[in-house]
Write a structure and sequence with these properties.
Number of domains: 1
Largest sheet: none
Order of helices and strands: HHHHHHHHHHHHHH
Oligomer: single chain
Number of helices: 14
Helix content: 55-70%
């Protein structure tokens, strides 16, 4: 068992390095792109906005890396040693089984994301992510610690059920970080978007998911591969995305965008505002929430 823990610590060191280095390089590239040619011109508030989101992201990573993160790696090591899970029931070469492993993990992420919109308790945490008024690459790491912790805990169950090994987990984590930052970025890839989103989630596709219109917010749940939404009937697109207004009406005040305001998001009343127009900011929702303080 001591050997297993030492291997897990070595593995989490590699995983942590990869999860830090690859997203960091991706973020730098996307930052430059957002400053050079943003889809929405929001550069005047970008530095303060991005620093807040980065603080939340690095806080989550620091707190979870050697707690649930370590437990996850230990479980994945046990899966590999003992042949647990669905994938172990098939005779697949290592060079082949990584693909179904990625697809299965991504399918789980689709279900988890959709549950965060459907289950009121989970939505209390997940709405911190959707309350961002300026969606960009840093929004990809703007998640409440409660949501990240619950996701990591459930993954400790999902990994042995599916039979995911530690290196398959590493590969998926790296791929997901790249794609998620890409489709949150404040950029446009023009006509290429419609072809690329046949395979993966793209910026235009995910902008719909961050719309204030609830019918659009409750759609396009996919993380990496876009076909999950088509299969599940949750795919939504509009002809153009310039008119999309981001955020949640009840969290559109400046206090909700501070670090303290974001961390307190789950504490506010759980009822969702239903926005039917992009023009209305529903100030009465903000006033009602502030009365509860």
């Amino acid at each position: 068992m001591i050997v297993l823990w030492n291997q897990a610590i070595d593995s989490i060191g590699v995983l942590a390095s990869a999860r830090l280095l690859v997203p960091l390089l991706t973020l730098i590239v996307l930052w430059c792109w957002e400053f050079w040619r943003p889809f929405f011109d929001q550069r005047d508030k970008k530095i303060r906005h991005d620093l807040r989101n980065l603080f939340i992201g690095f806080m989550n990573a620091s707190l979870l890396a050697f707690t649930l993160g370590l437990i996850t790696i230990v479980i994945a090591e046990l899966v590999d040693r003992n042949g647990w899970g669905l994938l172990a029931q098939f005779t697949l070469a290592d060079t082949v089984r990584w693909l179904p492993a990625l697809v299965l993990l991504d399918g789980w992420m689709y279900l988890w994301h959709r549950a965060n919109h459907r289950v009121p308790f989970l939505w209390r945490f997940h709405r911190m992510h959707h309350s961002d008024l300026q969606m960009d690459a840093t929004t990809a790491i703007r998640f409440h610690l409660g949501e990240v912790g619950l996701s990591a805990a459930l993954r400790c169950i999902v990994i042995p059920v599916l039979g995911i090994t530690v290196w398959e987990l590493v590969c998926y984590e790296i791929l997901m970080q790249i794609v998620v930052q890409f489709h949150h970025a404040n950029i446009s890839i023009g006509r290429f978007d419609r072809w690329l989103r046949l395979l993966i989630v793209t910026p235009d596709m995910h902008k719909m998911h961050h719309s204030r219109l609830q019918t659009e917010t409750d759609s396009n749940y996919s993380s990496v591969f876009s076909f999950w939404d088509r299969l599940a009937g949750t795919w939504t697109m509009r002809p153009e995305t310039r008119s999309i207004e981001f955020g949640l009406a009840e969290f559109s005040d400046e206090a909700s965008q501070t670090i303290g305001g974001m961390l307190k998001t789950p504490l506010w009343p759980g009822k969702r505002s239903i926005t039917t127009s992009h023009k209305g900011h529903s100030p009465e929702m903000i006033e009602h929430r502030n009365m509860k303080q």
